[in-house]
Amino acid sequence: MRLMVLVFAAFIAFSPSILEAGEMQEMKVVIASKTLQIGHVVAAGDVRVVKVRSKGPRDAVRLEDVVGKRVKRPVGKGNTVKRDYIGERLAIRKGDRVIIVVRNGNLRVSANGLARDDGATGDAVDVENLASGKVVSGIVVEPGVVEIYL
What we know:
Blueprint: H1 2-13, H2 16-20, E1 25-32, E2 47-54, E3 70-71, E4 86-87, E5 90-92, E6 97-104, E7 107-115, E8 119-120, E9 124-129, E10 135-142, E11 145-149
Parallel strand pairs: 6-11
Antiparallel strand pairs: 1-2, 3-4, 5-8, 6-7, 7-9, 9-10, 10-11
């Protein structure tokens, strides 16, 4: 056992790259001024920038990275806001009436629909065609519009 500890200690001493990977450094990051719940759209007063010791790459570093965007994972008051905890603002909410646009080359047909999912611009969502009752999947292209490519 003692030999194993000595070998491990020697390995660590001669492998500085292992320690550098998780090295803490002082940097500015965005932290929550209050608890941020899933779906909440972040306002300027909800967050602030502070200097902390951090590993960094996942942390949001500017207010512009989070203000006006939607919370995807809860963030406790005083905790660092991670970039992957924040997403684009929803363009469509489940139950919203939407326009379904079907494109096939130069042909474009539209119909009224009902959103079955929440979605931000660029998200895939299911929508129900109100005339046929058929449920189809498409991409949110702007608030209230879902596009389907054939």
